[in-house]
Each structure stands twice: as C-alpha cells, then as structure tokens.
Design a protein that fits this description.
about 290 residues, alpha/beta, Rossmann fold, 2 domains, nine-stranded mixed beta sheet, 11 helices, 9 strands, globular
Length: about 290
C-alpha cells in the first residue's frame, strides 16, 4: 500500500475558514476538530446519516471512508455490518477515532486518499464532508475509482452553496460591521475548502472527467446551535459559531475589544433566533451517488 500508514493518524471533515489545505488538517486544525468532536457531529450528523441511509444494505461490504475524522461515520458503517477502512490526514483526529472505536470495529489509517493505492479493492466509498479538499480533484477521483471493484459506487455528502446554509452565512453577516465585508465573505466554490463542491457543475465536471457517472439530490436540515438542556443557550451558540463555524480562522490575533465586539454582535443574532430554548440555523447539502 503506497502513501498509507497505520500510525497515529487521519482527511478532512469540512466547515470553513482555514479548513482548506492538507497542511491545515494535518496540523492545528485537526487538533481543534478533535477537541470539538461532539459539536462537529451535531453539525454534520443529520446530513451524514442521510448519506449512510443511501448506501442501503452494507452487510459484508468493504467500505473506504474518506476523511473519516474522529470516526463517527466509520463506526456507524461498521456497526451496520461493513468492513470499514477509515482514512484521514490528521494525527489528532485519527487518535480520537481509535479511542472512540472501543470495540475495535474499524481500521483507521493515516494517508492521503488522493494518491494511495490500497491492497484490496472496495465495494463502496463513503465520505461525509471529507472529499472537497483535494489539490487535484480530478486525479484524486480517478485514483479512487481505481480502488473500487467493478461496478462499485461512491456515496458522498457535501455542502450546497453558503447562501443556503444559514449556519455559515448568518454569523458572518452578524459580525460584518465589526470585521468588514472582506473578512466575512464565505469561501468560494471550485477551490479546495468546505464549499468547493457547492455548485453542481463543479462536482459533475470533476467526477465525469475522472470517469464516474453520477446523480445528485438536495438534503436539507437544521442545526441546533446549543444543547436543548443548556442553561445559557445564547452563550453556547456564540461559542459554537466562533469555534466550529466559519469565523474561527478570522478571529485570530484580534485585539480584545474587537473580539468582544464580535461576541456582542453574535449574541444579538443568536438571541433573535432563540425559540423554546433552542437556536436553530438551516443546513443544506448535496447527496451524490457516483458509479465507477
């Protein structure tokens, strides 16, 4: 197996800001995600569950989970009867995945799925927000197609445009008067990052150029920015937006008074959306099924 290691390790799982390169995920960004696993699963879980459901009966199937992160989807797939290889490029995330896999159901490998040749072919490829970060996506998906058995398929979940995702856009808009418009624009589609596949034509071109046929549909949901049992839902939602959402990398090295202004602006937005103790934002993704 080339470019793959069983050492302490994990690829990406997708929000915004600094989450754009392999170096980001292999470094501090991966550690940040490992420290906030439950919050990230709250954001990514519902759309990811829709992707898992789309796989159908996976008992006895061999599955490659790309960008497995802290192992949530890999473990779920294994509990459904599959043999799962979870791959990622973050040491910290893979360490968390192994710790969470208390029954030893999965194999977690530190490697770049874009270039790795695995020892055995897979029946299925799955990814929950972990496949939008390849530097050369056409080459990556051509390689991944070669890792499947004849007639194998991939089921992928990624974000639609930021304009359809209130969780990403509204916190940025809330602080635009503090940070300025240039610092509060969502990342564009078509370049490595959480919204790289936001526009349908982008992933259609990538997958068709690399030899896949595909179909895609919308999956929509909502995100609770705070725990329903929280005694301070506004504060919890503010912290969620600052640490899990698109603001994270944009808040580095700010003066204390600016950070406080950001917090105050976010608190106003969250307070206005508080209903029955919960602050909710819309989420919108693509569910892609690709045939090799």
């Amino acid at each position: 197996m080339r470019n793959c290691y069983r050492g302490q390790g994990a690829t990406a799982t997708g929000i915004e800001g600094a989450m754009t390169t392999k170096l980001d995920w292999a470094g501090s960004l991966g550690k940040m995600w490992a420290d906030k696993v439950e919050a990230h699963d709250r954001l990514l879980g519902p759309l990811g569950d829709a992707g898992i459901a789309a796989l159908g009966d996976i008992s006895g199937k061999r599955i490659l989970d790309i960008g497995c992160g802290a192992g949530t989807t890999s473990i779920a797939l294994a509990k459904a009867g599959a043999t799962v290889i979870g791959v990622d490029i973050s040491e910290d995330l893979l360490a968390e995945a192994r710790a969470r896999d208390t029954d030893g159901l999965c194999t977690f490998l530190l490697c770049d799925a874009a270039t790795t040749n695995f020892d055995e072919p897979f029946d299925l490829i799955f990814s929950r927000f972990g496949m939008m970060f390849f530097d050369d996506p056409v080459a990556a998906w051509a390689n991944l197609r070669n890792q499947l058995v004849h007639g194998g398929k991939a089921v992928l979940v990624c974000w639609r445009a930021a304009a359809h995702n209130d969780w990403a856009v509204l916190p940025l808009q809330a602080v635009s008067s503090v940070l300025g418009d240039a610092q509060t624009k969502p990342s564009p589609s078509g370049v490595p990052g959480p919204f790289a596949w936001a526009e349908e034509h982008v992933f259609i071109d990538i997958l068709q150029q690399s030899g896949w046929s595909l179909e895609a549909s919308h999956i929509d949901g909502s995100l609770a920015m705070n725990d329903v049992a929280s005694s301070n839902p506004v504060e919890e939602a503010v912290q969620f937006a600052m640490k899990v959402g698109p603001l994270g990398s944009r808040l580095k090295n700010l003066e204390p008074d600016v950070q406080q202004a950001v917090c105050d602006a976010l608190a106003g937005e969250m307070q206005g959306r508080l209903r029955d103790g919960v602050i909710r934002f819309s989420t919108a993704g693509w569910l892609i099924t690709a045939l090799s």
